[in-house]
Structures are given as C-alpha cells and as structure tokens.
Request: fold
Amino acid sequence: MTPQFSPMNPNSIKTRFTHRFLRALKRLRKNTKSPTAASSPPPSFSLRYQTVKMAADASMAAAVGPRRVWSRAILRKVRSRGFSARRIRSGRRSTASGVVRRIRRIKNGKTRVEEKIGFFGDDHRKTEELRRLVPGGEEAMDLYSLLDETAHYIKCLSTQVHTSGGLKSEKRNFGLMKKSQ
Amino acid sequence: MLHCLNAPGNAAGNCTDMSVLERQRARTKWQEEQLIHQPPQPCYFEGNDQFNNGFSMLNQGQDFLNLMNSEMGHVVKVDPGLDNNGWQEFGQFGGEVLGLGSSGFVTGSGFELNYGISRTVSCPEDVAAAAAVEETAATETTQRESVSPEKMTSLVGRESFKKRKADKNQSLKAVAGEESREKRIKGCNEEDESKITEEYSNNSKNTTHNNNIKRETSADTSKDNSKVSEVQKPDYIHVRARRGQATDSHSLAERVRREKISERMKYLQDLVPGCNKITGKAGMLDEIINYVQSLQRQVEFLSMKLAAVNPSLDFNIDNFFAKEVFPGSTSNFPIGVQSEITNPAYLQFNPLQQLASCSGLEMGINNPDMALRRTISAPLSIPDTFLDSSCFDQIQTSSGWDGNLQNIYGMEFLQGRLTSFPGQQFTGSNEASNLKMEM
Reply:
C-alpha cells in the first residue's frame, strides 16, 4: 500500500510539508468515509475548509519543527484546538475557562511586549499588526526576532502556496477527469 | 604662563580667518611632512613603557600595542625638534579636528570646532613650541591622567559640560589623580572604552575652545590615542557613538539592537517582492504586512479549493499516493510541455504506482523486474538513465502491462488516466527531484 519512493531531499521543508499534508488529507478523507462519519451527514463546506486549512497549517508547522516560534505557536494552537474539540464533546465548561485563561495570557504577553519595545506611533502600530499576523508573534519577543520569524514564515508560506497550488491543479484534473467519465 | 600664551592664540583665532581650503592645504602639507618623519625612534619607547602598560590594560592585543608604539614614537618625537615638530603636532590636530568635524557633527557646535581649529592652526610657532615643551614636561603619567578625567566626565554626561570645564580649569591635577585611579579600578569593558575614547576626543575639542594650551596638548595626545583605538575598533565594534550620542551601556545596546533590526529588514527586503524601492521602516513594515496577508489569503483560498474538490476525489484515494510524488514540482512547470516521451514515460510511471499500490495482484510478475531495473539505474546519473529506463520499461510494459491493467482495472480507468493526464505531470516527473523520487 505504501510506495517506497525515497524523496529527493527528505530534509527540505517542501518535501516534508507535502508528505505531511497529503497524509493529513488522506486521513481526513478516510474519516469521512468511515462508517461512523457515513452515518452522520456529510460535513459542511466551511467545516471541511477549516479542517483542510488546519491540516495545511499543522503540516507546515510540523515540517518546520519546533525550532521556530511561529511553528511552535501553530502546533500549540492545533493541539489545543484538538483538545478543546474533544472537550466540547465531553463537557463545555472547562474549555470555556481554558480559552479565557489562554486569551488572558496572550493579552498579558502583549502588554509586556508593548512595554519592552520603545516604538512609537506608526512604526509601533505596524509592528503590532505584524505581530498579530505572524503566529506566535504575540509572545514576548523583540523586534529583531519578530522580523526573523516573519522572514521564515514568509518563506514557508510561499512554499505552502506553491505546493498546495500544484496539489490543487492535480485535484482539479482528477475532478475533471471524473466528470468527463 | 597659560594666560600669556592664551592671549596670542585668541588674537590669532579672532583675527585670521583661514578659509577651509587653506586649512585643508595646510593639513595635507603637514601630513606629508609627518609621513616623512614617520619612522619611529626606538630609543624613546622605553620611556613609554608605563604608558603602554597603562593602556594595554584598556585594550588588549598585540597589534594594538604595535600600533601604539608607532604612534607613541611619533608623539615623543616632538621634543627633539621643538619648533618644527610641535607645529606639526598642532597641524595634525587641526587636521584631525577638520576630519572629524566633517564626519557628521552637529552644525551648532561645528562653529565652535572651526573656531577652535582656526585658532589652533594660526597659532604662532613659539606658542606651539611652548605647548610641546609643556607636553614633554607632562610625562606619560600625566598624559594618562589627562586622558582619564575627560573620559570619566564624558561618562557622567554631556549636560554637565560647562561645569566640567570649570572644574578642569580649577583643579585638573587633583581630579586627574582621583579619576585615573577610578578608571583603573573600572577595568574597562573594551567596547565601551573605545567608544568613550572617541567621544572623549570630541569632548576634548570642545575643551580646546577653553583657551587652555595644556588642554590642547592633552587633546593632542588623546587624538593619537583615539586614532589608534579607531584603527583597532572595526574588529569588534560596529556601532559608534557619534557626537551627541549617549555612551552608557543602555544606549549602546539599543544601538546594537537597531543595527540588528535593520540588517533583518534588509533580509526581508530581499524576500518580499517589490520591497526594494521602499525606504523607511514604516513603508517596509507595511509592505511586509501586505505580503504576509496576501500569502495567508492565498493559503486560505487554496485550502478552500482543496476542500471544494475533496469530495470528488473519493474514487481515487489510492492514486493519491501516486500524486504524492509530484505535487510539489508540478506547480513549477507550466502545462503543455508535451513531448514525444511524455506518453511512454507516463505509461511507465503510472503502472509503477499501480504496482506499488496493488502489489498483491498477478502482475506482480513484472514487479521484481522493474524493481531490478530501478535499482540498477539508480546509482547512475539521473536524467539520461531515467529516460533510458523509462523507455525500456515502456517497451516491456506495453506488451504485458496493458493487458493486465485492462483486465484488472478495466479499460476506462486506464484510458482515463492516460488521456486526462497532461504533459504537466510528466514535466513534473522530469524534474531531477522527482526522478530521484521515482528511483
């Protein structure tokens, strides 16, 4: 079942991301095809989109590994979301408080950062915006590491866009093929 | 003595308006002369041992000592030919002041500097000689002492500048004694020290404005010192304290931080397209934010597309792994690069995937053969061997393979695959990475 193809550069982020993403997509599909999911109505588009998006994010972060702040943040987010989803099924109270606590922690970190960085006016506002964009940027980190993370994040994002763009075209071909048949 | 020396200096400073051009010319002339007189006289070095030791405390390193020696040779050389060399010293000083003054000082005090220069330059020879005498009388220790207080005061702060001047006029010696001790105790962070030295040299020019010849001599020697430290500086310091900039550790760290940030900004500038023309941090940040946002939106869009296409793919779940080989590279290649080899290569490629995915079937007969072929051709250089092997395999497979496939999967599946896969896929597999992937 599993082809034994050794990729060109198993260490490149692109390859790793592709592998992980495809595996995640396959798992998703299996879940939808499994009997438990078959009994339930097919998931809505938005839910599917969210899961795919999360799979893309998570596989990217996992491909990068925990050595970057942004990937760590994504992984944490994904994991906590998984936890919260599980908890929602069992009981909602605990998750709500957990979320509130987490938000509060993030806010605290942000204020600390704001104190630390002596940026004023326009630059400061933009830095904050960038912080909000880059995952994990709201942790306490100085501008230098923020820019560092941003650079790496941009690289990985463009890789992701490339890869999933190729994937998409593949899938569209498949879809067209199926329709033509 | 000082006062009577001050008088001609002042007069000369006020009356003669030397143009900048004249000053420059004079400076170059003096520098030429000094180049001629450059070879150091080793007999004077023993006397400077103390001084050297004192400074080696501040700045370690053999090369620096060597530099210092040459510089000191030059400084001490002043005394044999008093009238000529002393004049040289002042000329050099003026030159230095000019050079430093042109290197980005505040204009408000630039006037002061120029005034000081013109006075120093137009100083009559006997004054210079007297200054030289003064200098030699004040031996190495006094040199060091006269260096230290200004350093300390520069640490204390620019605001107390006036007060410091007054202080100096009253009791230079006492302060010097105290503060040189203090300085020795301080032990010296190297980085801070050399920066302070530069700062201090700037300060010392201000003090020359105070019409103190003695101060001028100390400034002169400090000039040499700071020059030496400037020579040594680039090894470990990137940030410099210019005039008016603070030299305490906090602002130094701040400057280092800013330097790092701007370096990172440059890197991001390369990364973000269309960011090259934009200058200024705010614009750059804007551009970076826009780019990140657009990338994130693209990812969202793509995953939306994937989610939309997802259900139609239920049929081909097994081919998904076959797809896994190329998706990364297909995006790099445009569609429609179909060539003669496309079909054979693709033929070969697909069955291989199928083999891998359903290896329990009867066409497993072909499997070892192909695997062998693959292992044989693997270590060779990639593109040619791939094409070769693909052709071979095609020949082989086209005989027995098609029939098998038709039997098992049915015609429509094969046809669908064969027809609907464009050259894009082959181009994807033509790439070196995928070649190796397939091997």
About this structure: Confidence is low (pLDDT under 50) at residues 1-7, 88-104, 110-119 of chain A. The two ends of chain A are 26 Å apart (CA to CA). Chain A touches chain B through 72 residues (CB under 8 Å).
